[in-house]
């Protein structure tokens, strides 16, 4: 599963860049609650992505060795997202709820954009080889 680790490393780098942009937005704009919500949601999104990659790697190792595998940790990922929403609901003056929800979806957006860009670059590379 080295490809999975490479993908996760690239996704992690992109998400950390996004969080850095959000931190700059929090520091230099008057939209503090929006950017704090985006930061909270994106951190939870990164945690969920990391957890899924870790569980997928463990599943691959269990499948190759013929062992049983319990779960992919769906409940943990759901609970972390619910916890982030609960934090935003408890402190609405600090975290914007809509921003937290958008932040939770950040890893999914990064994965889709990365996939599309890789497909475009692969097709462009194939054309150049001809």
TrEMBL record:
GO terms for cellular component: plasma membrane. InterPro entries: ATP_synth_I, ATP_synth_I_Bacilli. The keyword Transmembrane helix applies. It is found in: Cell membrane. Its main location: membrane. The chain crosses the membrane at residues 12-28, 34-53, 74-91, 97-117. Keywords: Cell membrane, Membrane, Transmembrane, Transmembrane helix. This is ATP synthase subunit I. It comes from Lederbergia citri. It is a multi-pass membrane protein. It comes from the Bacteria.
